[in-house]
Amino acid sequence: MSLVSGRPCSPPLAAVLAAAACEGVRTERAPSERAAAVAALGASLAGARALAVLSGLEGAADALHAAALAGAAGGLVVLAMDDPGLALGPVRSDSRALARALELPCLEPSDARECLAQLAAALELSERWATPVVLRVTARLLLEARPIELGAPAPRPAAGLRRDRARRVLVAEHGGTLAARLEERLGQLAAEGVDSALNRVELRSRALGVVTSGPTYQYVREALPEASTLKLGLSFPLPSELVRDFARAVDRVAVVEEMEPVLESEVRAAGIPCRGKDGLPRLGELSPELVGWALSGVARPARPEPPAPPRPREACPGCPRRALFQALKRARAGVVADLACSAPGVFPPLAVVDAALAPGAAPALAHGAAAVLGPRVRGRLVALTSEESFLHSGALALAQAAEDGHGAVVVLEDGAAPPGERRADLAQLARALGAARVREVQVGELAACEAALREELAASGLSVLVARGRCPAGARSGAPFRVAPERCNRCGACLRLGCPALAEGTAAMAIDGPRCAGCGLCAQVCRAGAIARGEARA
C-alpha cells in the first residue's frame, strides 16, 4: 500500500487511519469522502496501491461511478463503513446497495481477521480486473478486538502514469465502449465467484440452507449451528450459479442480512424462492437471538427486554464548543449546524441547535432560508460549521451566499480539532470567497464572543465570525478551578453549561478537580464570584 486517504469522522475510522500509519505508507486525513476517494484514485492511476477510508459511499458516488468506468491501474480499495445499529450517527446508508448501483465489486468480511485477508484479496482483485473494489465493513466489526499478525509490509513502487485516453477521458464518444466493458467485467467476476475462495459453501443439515455475508454469518453459525450456509465474501456481483447449486442441495433457503434486502432481492431475481425480511427486521442490528427466532421456529418472547435509552453526547471539559453554544444561547439566535459540531448543543442544558443534517450543510441551509425569507431571518439565524465540515463542502455555499448578498451569520469554528491538525486560515479563506464582513473572536472570552455575535446579527449582509478556541485534548489550561462554598448561592448557572466536571454538591456546587480542564467558563458565568482558579479564590 502506498497511500491511505480517509475522513476519520468517527472513532472506528480514526482507528483505521491510525493503524494504517506505518513506514512506506503515506496516510492522510481528507476534508471529505469525495476528496479521499479521488486522491486514492489518482494514486491508483499512477500505478500505486491505494485505500480510501470512507464513512459511506454516498459522499463520493460521482467519483466512484467514474472510477468504475475508467478502471484502476494500481490496486484501489474503498473501505466503506455501515452503521446498522446507529451507534455513531443517524444515517443508516447501505453500502451494498450503493456498490451495486455504482457497479463496483463488493467484498464483505465477517470478522477482524477476515478484514486483513480480504483487504489483500481486494487489492489483488482490483489489479487483476482493473477495477476499484469496495470493502464493506460495519461499525461493530471495526470495534472488534482481536490479535492479528500483520507481517512486514512489502514495498511496491508506483509504476507511473500511463496515457490511455480511451479509458481515462470520460467523454460521450468513449461512453458506449466503457459501459460495455464494465458489463463484461461484472459478468466475468460473477462467473469467477462460483469457484472463488472468498465464497464458501458449508453443507450440514439439508433441512435449511442460509445465504449470508459479512458479520451476520457469525450470528447464523451461533443461532443455527446445524444449518448449511453459503458465506458470500464476494457478494457483488452475485455468483448466481453457486447460489443455485447451493439451493439444490437443501430443502429450504433463507437469506440473512442486516438493513435492506439486497441479497434477498438478487437471490429471488435468480429464480430461487427464499425467506428473508418477512421474518427479520430492516431496522437495527441483528443478533443470534433474532436469527434463531426468525428461522428455527422458536417462539419469540412476548415482551422483549426494552433497549437502554441512548445517552446524549456531551462535550469534554474545556471544549471551546461549550462556550460557543453558551454565547449562541444568550444571543437567542436560531442555529443550523453541521453534524460534526452539533451533538453537544442539541440536548439540554445547552439545547441551542435547531437543525443539523449533513457535513458542511449549515452555510447552504442558512443561505436557502435567507434567500426565501429575507428580512424575516435577519438577526435571528446563525450557521455553525467546524473547520473540517467547512472544507468538506461549506465553503462553496459561503461563496454563493457572498455572491447573492443574502443576510446570514456564518460562525466558523477554528481550532476545535486537536493541536497540529489545523489546515487553513479560515478568516483569509472567507475573505477570498467574497465575504465582506469577517471577524475573529476568542470563544473562551464569553462576554466578547456574545457581544460579537449580537453585533454581527444586527449587521446587514453576510457576516463571517471565526471563533477561535483550543481543543483541550486531555491537556489542562493551568490549575483546576474550585468553588468557594461560602460564596456559592446554588443558582445553577454553572450547571447550565453542561460541563462533566461540574456537579451539585451538598452545600454548594462542586468541581471535580482531576476532570477540570481549566478553561474558566464556569467562573465567567458565576455572578456570585464563587469560582476561581486553584488557591486564587478569595
Mean pLDDT: 86
Low-confidence region ranges: none
Specify Rg, calculated over alpha carbons.
27 Å
Major beta sheet, specifics?
7 strands, mixed
**Number of helix segments?**
19
Strand order of the largest sheet: 2-1-3-4-6-5-10
Shape estimate: globular
Outline the structure in words.
By secondary structure, the protein is of the alpha/beta class. The protein has helices at residues 11-20, 33-45, 61-70, 95-101, 112-129, 139-142, 165-168, 172-193, 216-223, 240-248, 262-269, 288-295, 320-330, 339-342, 362-373, 387-404, 426-432, 446-458, 521-525; strands spanning 3-6, 26-29, 50-54, 76-82, 106-107, 133-138, 199-202, 205-212, 227-232, 234-236, 253-256, 334-337, 353-356, 381-386, 408-414, 437-442, 462-468, 481-483, 502-504, 509-511, 531-533. It has a seven-stranded mixed β-sheet, sandwiched between helices. A six-stranded parallel β-sheet has the order 13-12-14-15-17-16, with helices on both faces. Helix 2 packs parallel to helix 3 (61-70), helix 9 packs across helix 12 (288-295) and helix 15 (362-373) runs parallel beside helix 16. The longest helix is centred in the middle third of the chain and has 22 residues, at 172-193. The chain is globular and about 80 Å long. 47% of the residues are buried. The model has no long low-confidence stretch (mean pLDDT 86).
